[in-house]
Amino acid sequence: MLTLEDYVARIEGTCGEEKDVIVIFKYEKKGEAIAKILKKSKTKKSISGIIFELTYNNISFRLYGTGKAIFRSIKDKNELQRILSELLL
Amino acid sequence: MLNPYKLREDFPILKRKINNHPLIYFDNAASSQKPKQVIEAIKNFYENHNANVHRAVHTLSQEASELYENAHEEVAKFINAEGIEEIIFVRGTTEAINLVAYAWGLHNLTKDDEVIVSLMEHHSNIVPWEILSRINGFNIKYAEINDDGTLNYEALERIISKKTKIVCISHVSNFSGVINNVKKVAKIAHEYGALTLIDGAQSVPHLPIDVKDLDVDFLAFSGHKMLGPTGIGALYGKHEILEKMEPFQGGGEMIREVSFNQAMKHCSITWNDLPWKFEAGTPNISGGVGFMEAVKYLQRIGMENVKAHECKLTQYALQRMQECRKVKIYGTTDVSVKCGIIPFNVEGLSSHDVALFLDNYGIMIRSGFHCVQPLHQVLELKSSTRASFYIYNTPEEVDRFIEVLKEIEQV
Questions:
Q1: Helix B303-321 with B395-409: angle, nearest 10 deg
Q2: Three-state secondary-structure class, residue A67
Q3: Partner residue opposite B360 with nearest CB, options A16, A17, A66
Q4: Which residues of A touch B411 (CB under 8 A)?
Q5: What is the pTM of this model?
Q6: What is this model's ipTM?
Q7: Which domains does chain A have, with CATH numbers?
Q8: What structural domains does chain B harbor?
Q9: For residue range A43-67, what is the model confidence (pLDDT) as tens digits?
Q10: In terms of CA atoms, which chain B residue is nearest residue A65?
Q11: Would residue B371 show up in a list of annotated catalytic residues for this protein?
Q12: B293-308 pLDDT, tens per residue?
């Protein structure tokens, strides 16, 4: 059974008042992760098919074709893990 | 004149592609890339000369010791210090500042004293003093800055007093690239009998430095920001001040003698000569060798040429960034008083969004607080994006950066 660890390489809290969280997907799984996320979330905007402005359950985030995603206004680690689980698993 | 296209051939990493785009490295204020000469010097050390220094009589140890001492000598010449007695090798700028805080501050600052730092300081020139003030109880005063990010010298003169024992100021701001007149700061401080500690992390790699002319008492800088390896840097200190200071850490190398007194049941210890008195334990020898090679590389180019190249490139970047209508640049845009650092934000986007967007196109820049949170608070910024240049950056890379910035503005 797949777990978040199968998809996520690193989760980086950023410095700055915004408290953005950056999720870096595993290189070999990034294509699969991006496809799953795009399928489950709503695309507000796509730029050249490599950068996607998305929303999922009122959470807005941006997904990059390089296998990185930036989440804004995330309450805590638990909320992020819940969202990622819903999107990926 | 510096030829960045020719120099780029020395930097293997610059041939890399990131996300299928040629690497554009604009995060030089965080760390510089390394030329093959530095990489080779470290490799050569490990392959041919590796041994501990100042410990043994055998050939390898003698060779390693000579290389390590030569490294101090090269760094001393680079900043026009008197000699190796004034150059202490440390892990980097942060450790150099901590060395001054603990080896000088701990023994010389009392509750009635004052330490001045500026509001543009990197956390590494704030936190050690804040920690020490909790131990010794002295007061820390923060020197204000002007709206354009330059140091407010009048404000500095207003807060300095006979109680001030040390003034700790960045030579170049790691946020705005603004160059502070540290010669003037040293003159003001000395009039009040205070010492000066200059954070040279962003100045020594980019400007010609003459510590005698500047007349500063301490200068801290890192090797990795000036083409050298990580984990090595230097603290310059005036000989007579270092001589009077207590050691920073205890261990091998920093002592001349540890003699056990049978009657008293304790050891009496005498310190080693400068600079070894401040270099406890086995040092970062290969790092020192790499640092020396980096300094030699910069000397061959000439620091006036380094400065001129960055000045020209920064001016070009600032001019082209004006084309981006959603980009807001912070700090002065007068390149005669700033190094190659440009802090900015793109309207409607967080700094991390901008950095990730640029990363997508192989452009590496920094986002966040850059370890200068107090300055961000003063400027009422949530965070910022920072592009910083070095000798191998080109106008064509700036053009590509602008092209992507314009694309970001469409988001």
A1: 30
A2: coil
A3: A66
A4: 45, 47, 51, 53
A5: 0.95
A6: 0.85
A7: 4-88 (3.30.310)
A8: 4-30+302-409 (3.90.1150.10), 39-299 (3.40.640.10)
A9: 998 887 788 999 999 999 999 999 9
A10: B360
A11: yes
A12: 999 999 999 999 999 9
